[in-house]
Design a protein that fits this description.
Shape: globular
Mean pLDDT: 88
CATH topology: TIM Barrel
CATH class: Alpha Beta
CATH architecture: Alpha-Beta Barrel
Number of strands: 12
Helix content: 25-40%
Radius of gyration: 17 Å
Number of domains: 1
Strand content: 5-15%
Number of helices: 9
């Protein structure tokens, strides 16, 4: 095994350890709307839900993020939901999730890391074949806010691009999600320079602890009242609960008048 390959695998092991306990900042508090600006230093993505059924306040404002082709909300003037899944590894549920999405004719974005592409190539190929976005969650899932050099930042994205191209014969979609929601202003600039749109989220819940999964009732109590126009929803494909509730969840959102849209509908 070449030294470069060995270093990648070692870094991937560390990244997956972080992924297993990934908090993703989904419940973090955010400052008031007037104070929400992109920090120059490292930060964790966080949200403050102030009014039920309304878009939350992020710890960076939507208009400021758009300067870097970064988003946490879609079109807030339309009853539309953008479904996204973070995929660190295959836990036996992704194909069931794909089945439900197909039944609802619902496009989604799957943010994958190197391990997912290497260990479950047939599932990744299915994502692409069924018209879903396969986005870049980095090769090793490190804390990207700790990477200051453009070359090192770029390597995390382009090495995954190369693996995806080799595996699927396709080019990876230019959507990037920072691992664990850790980012900095410089990261936003770095991703933009590579032609990527950075995608955070406006709705998530604690679904990533595989040995402590929420009940369906707990999941619905977070995902139904907090849904809002233009929501970018983050779910983890490793979650048993998500696989079990997804059909009912999408049906209930459809019953509330929502449609599902691709991230491609976000402004370029």
């Amino acid at each position: 095994m070449g030294k470069r390959r060995w270093r990648r695998l070692a870094a991937l092991a560390l990244g997956l350890a972080a992924l297993a306990g990934c908090g993703d900042g989904s419940g973090g508090a955010a400052p008031a709307a007037g104070d929400a600006a992109v920090p120059a230093s490292a930060d964790n993505w966080g949200l403050s839900f102030q009014t039920e059924g309304q878009a939350p306040v992020g710890n960076a404002g939507a208009e400021e993020l758009e300067r870097y082709n970064a988003y946490y909300l879609g079109d807030t003037g339309e009853k539309v939901i953008y479904l996204t899944f973070d995929c660190g590894y295959e836990n036996g549920y992704t194909e069931r999730i794909l089945d439900v999405l197909k039944a609802h004719n619902a496009p989604a974005a799957f943010f994958v890391v190197g391990h997912m592409v290497e260990s479950a190539p047939e599932i990744v190929r299915r994502m692409a074949a069924e018209g879903h976005i396969v986005g870049n969650h980095t090769y090793h899932h490190p804390d990207m806010s700790a990477i200051a050099e453009q070359e090192a930042f770029q390597e995390e994205l382009t090495s995954l691009e190369a693996l995806y191209r080799e595996t699927t014969g396709r080019e990876m979609s230019r959507f990037y999600r920072p691992p664990q929601g850790k980012y900095s202003q410089e990261n936003l600039r770095q991703a933009q320079a590579l032609g990527y749109r950075t995608v955070f989220w406006s709705l998530a819940y604690v679904d990533w602890y595989t040995d402590d999964q929420p009940t369906a009732e707990e999941a619905f109590s977070k995902l139904i009242p907090r849904i809002h126009d233009g929501a970018i929803v983050l779910l983890h494909s490793t979650s048993r609960t998500n696989a079990e509730i997804l059909d009912e969840l999408l049906t209930r959102w459809e019953g509330m008048g929502y449609r599902f849209a691709s991230l491609e509908e976000l402004p370029a």
